[in-house]
Amino acid sequence: MENSDSFERFKDLDLSRDEIDRLGEALKKDEFRKLLIDYVQEVQDPENQKLYEKEITQLEKERGNDIQFLHPTPCYVIKTSLNGNKKCFINICGNDLVKKPSSTPSEKDGARGLQWSLPHSLSPPSEDLDNKGDRCKVFDVLFHPDTLHLAHKNKTFRNMVNKTACNAIESNFDIKLDKNNLKFPKMKYKGVARASVIRKPSTEGPIERSPKKRNFLINFMLKQMNLDKVTRIQKRVKSLQTEKKVLMKILFIQPPNISSNIVVM
């Protein structure tokens, strides 16, 4: 049964027989494995992340965009199922760039209370593995730290945060979550934390640069992204498609996310 499950997961990678053979041969070599590990460590190095974000911000500025990187601060995790047949995790996180919660007085059936607004930010889902090695979906939902502080102090408010997160995921990604069977594993974050981006048109417009200066900036950024090492990995596997699937599907290695967030403010 275990071998059958492993085969199904491997089949999902959509690798050709030739790619599987090349990958298998490459992984037998110590040099390739060391190169792959070094690449992962460099991609995840905080200093490299900072340099990457700095250069991306500059390039986006030239294109007439202002961007902000949202780094999730882990808080707690919700575990449930997706569309009735796939396990998923929701990382409830904090970030100061998300707007603070607000409330207005309300009255319903003679009872007075508060109508809350909980601004939040969603990032595109990622894939990970559960503790059995099965694939699962992971979503990040970011709130302002004040929202999470209130959720920590008040169970009713926490339930409202959970409901807001689930509803936002369902409406933005056109999926169905099992909201009647939410579980809360003893972890603060599922997967590898990734920054995502809020992109807005700049009031200053695009910035013109000379071709020489632009080429210098692009080459510097490519160097920080360690593309020379990626190229060496590609040569060892002898297939760009295989290399991409190795990094993105098998090992779930993901460079800094520069796609726009879905932001609800």
Automatic annotation (TrEMBL):
Residues 43-203 form the PIH1 N-terminal domain. InterPro entries: PIH1/Kintoun_subfamily, PIH1_N. Transmembrane segments: none annotated. Residues 101-129 are annotated as: Disordered. Belongs to the PIH1 family. This is PIH1 N-terminal domain-containing protein.
